[in-house]
Design goal:
InterPro entries: AAA+_ATPase, ATPase_AAA_core, FtsK/SpoIIIE/SftA, FtsK_dom, P-loop_NTPase. Keywords: ATP-binding, Membrane, Nucleotide-binding, Transmembrane, Transmembrane helix. The chain has 27 helices and 38 strands. It has 974 residues and is α/β, with parallel strands linked by helices. The protein folds into five domains: 95 residues, no CATH class; 176 residues, no CATH class; 260 residues, Rossmann fold (3-Layer(aba) Sandwich); 188 residues, Rossmann fold, CATH 3.40.50.300; 118 residues. The strands form five sheets. Strands 12, 13, 14, 15, 16, 17, 18, 19, 20, 21 and 22 form an eleven-stranded mixed β-sheet that branches. Strands 23, 24, 25, 26, 27, 28, 29, 30, 31 and 32 form a ten-stranded mixed β-sheet that branches. A nine-stranded mixed β-sheet has the order 4-2-11-10-9-5-8-7-6. A hairpin with a 2-residue loop joins strand 13 and strand 14. The longest helix has 57 residues.
């Protein structure tokens, strides 16, 4: 066939013929205009009788005739102007037709390049599959897709339409499926057939299309073509036959039929001196009348079309075939392109690299046609993308690549950080290599996230080294500088990003800045398409695809569907693009135990590679061990309280948990029971005692009477400027005062809020611990400036407490938690309990004094006092007379002590007695607030008793504040 289907890539405005100028209307004779002057002149003559008025009658016809001729003159002028304008528009239309034809012609030749164009241009075969597209027979006139609207009105318009519909110097195409016959002088016919063979070999991939040429010297050049016949058949064939005899042979007659190997004939090309010798059924017959004159004929189709044939000489065809053979060998598609099914890494000769060189990371990792496959991460990279479905040998390829690099390069010139999100078993055989800085797996999510986050710090470290040395690239550093290239290998990149989405930005940063800093990425995934960010893919010049399931995955990685055609029983077979845009089939090497041992021992004299991140924080740190972290953490404020170690992976260091009360405010330790709260407070107390002595710390613990007194003294010191400790430690702040009487609980919390609010200005700091921050008042929570967050039951509890949810760990050990958004491990210290410093005296009755005892159990207390040798008087409601009699008797007899015992009701009913003795009597309260209020008219709270008034009592001497005393032992309670 000889047609051209050309569609502009972008729609263009339609063209149209300019409209033809209309025929001007013929001007009529102005009869009324002629008669009007005549009638007027006759009327004037009749009135005036002047003969001169009759002269005006002649003016009418003269003016009428002149106007007729003038109208015709103007009509001819307008028609000439319209015809000129249409001619100009026709010229513009011709120019637009030529421009669009030029674009259409260029697009047609791009779509269908002739053999001449293929030979004259730089060699770049368009191998896709085994199909042969339309064949270019030569150049000539072809139907154009351009159309011009409008109806022609003359030969000129018809010529414009015919010109627009014809595209000159366009490709004359033929359908290869129907067969092509060339008739004419054999040298010219063979040259035309050579052009067809070159076009078919340019489009069809070797191995999918076979070229069969006739015997003879004229076709020896075809032996260089990489399109060789496979023994198993099943290919398509481009077959060339020559019918030289007058009678057609049986071989020629059956040339278009499939052979016994079931190879379909994609295109049959026949060469004959006469049309009668051609095989039957050819749909396109070309008669060659000379090197520049040919006609194409298709039976039952359009008339014969003359064109200039596309001819190719033997030397030109031989040169093109040699280039095609070299390209096929590079791609593993040539006649010698049979890859071995198994390649041992130890059998590959690794390149020789200068021992201190940083300018290359080349290594032999497999086999391609003609030798080993060498990949250089520095020259070809800087990063690589590896794809491969399950069972394709992806992990084995990564293992072989890493081992090959370890064989060829020293540990101080290349190091590996291996990330395996399939459990870590893939890289376990090479863990002991001195180049391996660590293996990160998905079994420990915290360690995985921490290691990858440390890579930002590694980039900053390398930037500082280059800046300090005045180098723009790591290859420019002095050979003695200890800075190795870092290769980060991530197996199952998709799983890592799904688990830690934020790490995608870290990987993108490394991909953008890693080249000059010497950090290289090798990202492996079953389906990288859509998983790896575009900015990362753009920097991964090296592309490797082992077997994939989807054709689109292979195209997305290596630009060809070849990886999707790999057989499932061929592990390690893949396609690699080393950054030159030329995908090459290869067979991956296998790193056996011997090769791994050789890689480990070859550079055993060189120190191990520097690790880009520190180990995780230890599970336990003692106070003695804390000093050992000084080198990693750096110096701390000499006046700060250091009680733990903080992890700073993004800075590649550890820091001190350092608390400065003057600037940081009070400290609150939050955590569930068993999280190490008490130990944390002890560590803080120890650190403060080490700086300022044990007396600078008050542990708010012990009997609640002592806690009450201590808080009262501190509040008094805060408000009146007396001596204060530097630190008050309160454990279980949310439950510490829960069992206290309501009045005392409210009072102690108010005192604590006052100390938190006002004590900081006086140099008093508070370190407290609680399990639930909501158990504290809002004012108290706001008073704490710093928080240590230990283990919480759930992630939401930690977030509500103000922590970072991503740092939550369900299996956190005691002392582990977070501090200012970073993970910490606090010092483990022995419990520091407060010892009672105040002694409560026994109750002593003063001789000669009246003692008013308000008791919750008056009879029992009276019996106790009686057993001690006293003679108590038991008050009862309405017993005022007996009480007065006892008072008078006591004054007269001079008894050692008069003891009046009664409960709150008894004293209330005997109010006159109470009023009489209140000023001078010693008041003893063995009970609660009701008994105290019955005798003491002071609204302030008395000192808190430890056991609710069972073993202790209040004693109020005249003119003195209330005090505590021990109620006599041996009390018998009813």
């Amino acid at each position: 066939m000889h047609r051209l289907e050309a569609v502009p890539p972008h729609p263009e405005p339609p063209l149209a013929l300019p409209p033809s100028p209309p025929e001007p209307a013929r001007a009529g004779f102005p009869l009324l205009a002629t008669l009007a002057p005549v009638i007027g002149a006759l009327g004037l003559w009749a009135v005036t009788g002047s003969m001169f008025s009759l002269m005006f009658a002649a003016l009418g016809p003269i003016v009428a005739v002149a106007s007729v001729f003038d109208a015709r003159r103007l009509s001819r002028r307008q028609r000439r102007r319209a015809e000129h304008e249409r001619a100009v528009r026709l010229d513009d239309l011709h120019g637009e037709i030529d421009a669009r034809h030029a674009r259409e012609r260029a697009a047609a030749w791009r779509r269908s390049p002739s053999a001449r164009l293929l030979v004259d241009s730089a060699f770049a075969p368009h191998w896709r599959d085994g199909t042969v597209p339309a064949i270019v027979l030569g150049r000539g006139a072809a139907p154009s897709a351009l159309r011009v609207d409008g109806a022609p009105v003359g030969a000129t318009d018809r010529a414009v339409l015919e010109r627009a519909a014809r595209l000159d110097d366009a490709p004359v195409l033929a359908d290869p499926e129907g067969g092509i016959g060339f008739v004419g002088a054999l040298p010219i016919a063979r040259a035309a057939a050579r052009a067809v063979v070159v076009q078919g070999a340019n489009h069809a991939i070797p191995g999918a299309l076979t070229v069969e040429l006739p015997e003879g010297a004229a076709w020896r050049w075809g032996a260089r073509l990489p399109h060789v016949l496979s023994a198993d058949g099943g290919h398509r064939v481009l077959r060339v036959v020559e019918a030289l005899a007058g009678a057609m042979s049986s071989a020629v007659a059956s040339a278009g039929e499939p052979d016994d190997r079931r190879n379909d004939v994609a295109c049959l090309v026949a060469v004959a001196p006469h049309a009668s010798s051609l095989p039957p059924g050819l749909r396109t017959v070309v008669r060659l009348d000379g090197p520049a004159v040919a006609t194409v004929h298709r039976p039952g189709d359009a008339p014969e079309l003359a064109f200039v044939p596309d001819l190719l000489g033997e030397a030109e065809a031989l040169q093109w075939a040699a280039e095609a053979a070299r390209a096929a060998d590079r791609a593993g598609l040539g006649a010698a392109g049979i890859l071995p099914p198994r390649v041992r890494l130890g059998d590959l000769e690794q390149p020789t690299i200068p021992s201190l060189s940083r300018s290359t990371l080349t290594a032999a990792v497999g086999a391609v046609t003609g030798g080993p496959l060498e990949i250089d991460l520095v020259r070809d990279g800087p990063h690589a993308l590896v794809a491969g479905t399950t069972g394709s040998g992806k992990s084995e390829f990564l293992l072989a690549w890493i081992t090959a690099l370890a064989l060829a390069h020293r540990p101080d010139r290349v190091s590996f950080l291996l990330v395996d999100f399939k459990g870590g078993a893939a890289f376990e055989p090479i863990r002991a290599l001195p180049h391996v800085t660590g293996i990160v797996t998905d079994l420990d999510e915290a360690e995985a996230e921490r290691a990858v986050m440390s890579l930002r710090a590694e980039l900053r470290h390398r930037e500082s080294v280059l800046l300090r040395e005045g180098a723009r690239d790591i290859a420019e550093l002095d050979p003695t500088m200890q800075l190795a290239r870092l290769v980060i290998v991530v197996d199952e990149f998709q799983a890592m990003i799904e688990r830690f989405p934020d790490l995608g930005a870290v990987i993108a940063d490394i991909a953008a800045r890693g080249r000059s800093l010497g950090v290289h990425l090798v990202l492996a995934s079953q389906r990288p398409n859509g998983v790896v960010r575009e900015q990362v893919v753009a920097n991964c010049a090296i592309r490797v695809s082992l077997r994939v399931v989807q054709r689109a995955d292979s195209i997305a990685v290596v630009g060809t569907p070849a990886a999707a055609r790999i057989r499932p029983d061929s592990p390690g077979r893949g396609v690699v693009d080393r950054g030159d845009g030329c995908p090459v089939p290869f067979q991956s090497a296998i790193a056996d135990a011997a090769a791994i041992r050789a890689a480990g021992s070859r550079h055993s004299h060189v120190p191990r590679s520097r690790r880009p991140w520190l180990d995780p924080l230890p599970r336990r740190i003692t106070a003695a061990e804390l000093a050992g972290f000084a080198d990693a953490a750096g110096s701390a404020d000499l006046q700060a309280i250091v009680f733990g170690v903080v992890d700073e992976p993004e800075l590649q260091r550890r820091g001190f948990v350092s608390w400065s009360p003057d600037s940081d405010g009070h400290l609150l330790v939050l955590g569930m029971p068993g999280s190490g709260r008490s130990t944390a407070l002890t560590a803080v107390a120890d650190a403060m005692a080490a700086l300022h002595g044990r007396g600078s710390v008050v542990m708010l613990d012990g009997p609640r009477s002592e806690v009450w007194d201590t808080m009262a003294e501190m509040l008094d010191g805060v408000r009146h400027g007396t001596s204060l400790p530097r630190l008050v430690v309160i454990d279980d702040l949310d439950t510490r005062f829960r069992s206290w009487p309501d009045e005392y609980r409210h009072a102690i919390l108010e005192s604590l809020e006052a100390i938190l609010r006002e004590g900081r200005a006086r140099g008093l700091a508070v370190a407290a611990a609680t399990s639930q921050p909501h158990g504290l008042s809002q004012a108290m929570r706001d008073a704490f400036g710093d928080r240590v967050l230990l283990r919480h039951p759930t992630r939401s509890d930690l977030v509500q407490a103000g922590g970072a949810g991503e740092l939550w760990r369900a299996s956190e050990l005691p002392g582990a938690g977070q501090w200012r958004g970073r993970r910490v491990q606090l010092v483990t210290a022995p419990t520091w309990s407060a010892t009672p410093t105040r002694v409560v005296p026994r109750l002593e009755l003063v001789a000669g004094r009246v003692h008013a005892v308000a008791s919750a159990r008056p009879r029992a207390d009276a019996d106790t006092l009686r057993s001690l040798g006293h003679a108590p008087v038991l008050l009862a409601p309405g017993g005022e007379a007996a009480a007065r009699l006892a008072l008078e008797s006591s004054a007269a007899c001079g008894e050692p002590a008069l003891v009046l015992v009664g409960d709150a009701d008894a004293w209330a009913s005997n109010w006159s007695v109470a009023a009489a003795i209140r000023e001078d009597a010693v008041v003893v309260v063995h009970g609660g607030a009701a008994e105290y209020r019955a005798l003491v008219r002071d609204r302030t709270l008395p000192p808190l008793l430890d056991d609710g008034g069972l073993r202790q009592c209040w004693v109020v001497h005249p003119g003195e504040p209330p005090g505590r005393a021990l109620w006599p032992v041996g009390v018998v309670h009813n």
